[in-house]
UniProtKB/TrEMBL annotation:
Domain Thioredoxin span(s) in chain numbering: 1-105
Cysteine pairings via disulfide bonds: C30-C33
Annotated protein name in UniProt: Thioredoxin
Claim: Electron transport is one of the keywords in the record: yes
Pfam families in alphabetical order: Thioredoxin
Active site: C30 (nucleophile), C33 (nucleophile)
Gene Ontology cellular-component annotations: cytosol
Family assignment from sequence similarity: Belongs to the thioredoxin family.
Top-rank taxon: Bacteria
InterPro entries: Thioredoxin, Thioredoxin-like_sf, Thioredoxin_CS, Thioredoxin_domain
Residues carrying the site annotation Deprotonates C-terminal active site Cys: D24
Keyword Transit peptide among record annotations: no
């Protein structure tokens, strides 16, 4: 599956309706974004089980602002509606492949348990 453009109107539904969603926040004028684009596109073709979305920060300024995007490209990774990763910077192919492998291997029950424990600890400190 090739990458798909995400907008404010379909972003939330895309995250809710798909198990794993990678999101590349980019802009046409951004050199590192243009360098990362073919790497990201290739990964989308190799991993059809993952949704690879792209958000044009120029066209979708409200969406970029909602996620606090300050630097592009920024890659975000969601699994089961949980934001697992958010990092600016273009990744080399090997680093993106490694991230994909890590996300696919995650035990999401364990992730949810860790989130619940962290939230409980925060509540105790408040």
């Amino acid at each position: 599956m090739a990458t798909r453009n995400l907008t404010l109107s379909d972003f939330e539904a895309t995250i809710q309706e798909n198990d794993i969603v990678f999101v590349d926040f980019w802009a046409a004028w951004c050199g590192p974004c243009r360098m990362f684009a073919p790497i990201y596109e290739q990964a989308s073709e190799v991993h059809p089980e993952i949704v690879f979305g792209k958000v044009d920060t120029e066209a979708e300024q409200q969406l970029a602002a909602a996620f606090g995007i300050m630097s592009i490209p920024t890659l975000m990774i969601f699994r089961e509606q949980i934001l697992l990763y958010s990092q600016p910077g273009a990744l080399p192919k090997e680093a993106l492949d490694d991230l994909i492998s890590q996300v696919l291997a995650l035990d999401m029950d364990d992730v949810r348990r860790q989130i619940a424990e962290a939230q409980a600890a925060e509540a105790r400190q408040a």
